[in-house]
Each structure stands twice: as structure tokens, then as C-alpha cells.
Amino acid sequence: MRYTIPEEWLSFCDFEMVSPGYRFYCYEQNSNAQPVPLSEIEPPVRGEGVDPFKKYKMVPVLMAMMDPEGILPPIVVAPIEYTSTYKYRVVNGFHRFYASAQRGYPQIPVVLSDGGRW
After folding, report:
1. How many CB atoms lie within 10 A of CB 44?
2. Residues of 60-75 as b/e, b for ≥16 C-beta within 10 angstroms?
3. How far apart are CA 36 and CA 110, in angstroms?
């Protein structure tokens, strides 16, 4: 992971670092989402001097991942054609991407940015 989620936020949310046996977080089933390996998504970065996480955004994501009834939207990705390392880049879902990595999920639900179908 490029960024570290502050330990006090993880502790506040009783966030366990090991995945509970699921491959990805619970997401909106009516979306046109598909689980994709995190390893196929380029880890998003913030601009120089910008705090990587907003507490008011990260803590609800962490809490939803810990809630057995929690549901989060899939992240939005765009295909990358100029690199062979990653297939996608994050358009929307910075906090969900890093929370999933911290949780130990090998996959994350994604939708394509152009609304295309898989």
C-alpha cells in the first residue's frame, strides 16, 4: 500500500486487518459491477502535499466494511492502455480502494467509468 490508514481510525472502527473470508466487500447488487483483483488496479495517489485520507470519508467506509449488513458502492475505474502493469485506474473510490487493501480483500467491486458493460 502506498498510504497508511491512521491506526487510531482503525482502532475506533474495530477494524480487523484480516479479511473475514470474503473476496471483496458487500456492494450494491443492482449495479453493473464486477469484482476485479486489486492487483489489476493502479494504486491511486494524491497530489504532493495533499493529505491522503479524509477522516470523514474513511471512517464510514471502514465501519461499513465491519458491519455484516454494510453495503458500499463499487469503485469507478477506467481502462489503462499505456501500461502492462495495471489494467485499470481509479476514477472514484480512493478510500474504498485503500480500505479494501487494508482489510486484506484480494478483489474489489468496480464499474467502468464510461458506463460500459463487461
Report:
1. 19
2. ebbebbeeeeeebebb
3. 7
Indicate the pTM of the whole model.
0.90
Domain spanning 7-112, CATH class: alpha beta
- Other CB atoms within a 10 A radius of the CB of residue 93 amount to 23
Contacts of residue 82, defined as CB under 8 A and 6 or more positions apart, other chains included, come to: none
Phi-psi region of 41 (alpha: psi -120 to 50; beta: other; left: phi over 0): beta
pLDDT in tens, 18-31: 666 889 999 987 77
Q: CA-CA distance, 99 to 1, in Å (whole number)?
A: 10
Which grid cell sits at 68?
455484516
Burial environment of residue 99 by CB neighbours within 10 A (0 to 12, 13 to 18, 19 or more): buried
Going from N- to C-terminal start, the domains of the chain cover 7-112
Distance between CA atoms of residues 84 and 97, nearest Å: 20
Looking at residues 50-79, what average pLDDT do you find?
Answer: 93
